[in-house]
Amino acid sequence: LSNSLSTVDIVDAQSKYGFWGWNLWRQPIGFIVFLISSLAECERLPFDLPEAEEELVAGYQTEYSGIKFGLFYVASYLNLLVSSLFVTVLYLGGWNISIPYIFVSELFEINKTCVVFGTTIGIFITLAKTYLFLFLSITTRWTLPRLRMDQLLNLGWKFLLPISLGNLLLTTSFRLFSL
């Protein structure tokens, strides 16, 4: 969709049409598959099999306590933050704002060509979109029950993989025949 693997080019391709140019609207199936896969990769509920009571004997976290156990939790939350940043850049328009902020610069009497102002706004927009995804993942943790191992494997192999391959085939055919 962006004709590039560069994150800057991906964000620039999403900024052409504002809010409706986001890859969230152009690739809704890919967004849902990426969302579910990132939650599973981060081992967030309902995919947190290492913390499950029935899997506790085989869980890798049973051998650690103290600071090592805390570092596993910090790494888990950093993994969630990085995946949230990837969702923001790939599907939510990255650091571009969908509404014009011309009036904001006039309100604060800032020159529109000021690089610091544009960079600061971009950082705040990226963090706001990232926190939106973090809130979504935490809300998912509160509302959904834990999956068993066989349910997780069936979800991945029998549902997400065929849907993502079909989405890839569909997107490729649209791109091929639209040229």
From TrEMBL:
Q: Which domain of life is it from?
A: Eukaryota
Q: Which UniProt keywords apply?
A: Chloroplast, Membrane, NAD, Plastid, Transmembrane, Transmembrane helix
What parts of the sequence cross the membrane?
A: 71-95, 115-138, 159-177
> How would you describe this protein's topology in the membrane?
Multi-pass membrane protein
Q: Which GO terms describe its molecular function?
A: NADH dehydrogenase activity
- Report the InterPro entries cross-referenced here: NADH_UbQ_OxRdtase_su1/FPO (IPR001694), NADH_UbQ_OxRdtase_su1_CS (IPR018086)
GO biological process assignments: aerobic respiration
Asked if Chloroplast is a keyword of the record, the answer is: yes
Instruction: Return the Pfam families for the record.
Output: NADHdh (PF00146)
Put simply, this protein is called NADH-plastoquinone oxidoreductase subunit 1
| Species annotation | Dimorphandra macrostachya
| Phylogenetic classification of the source organism | Eukaryota, Viridiplantae, Streptophyta, Embryophyta, Tracheophyta
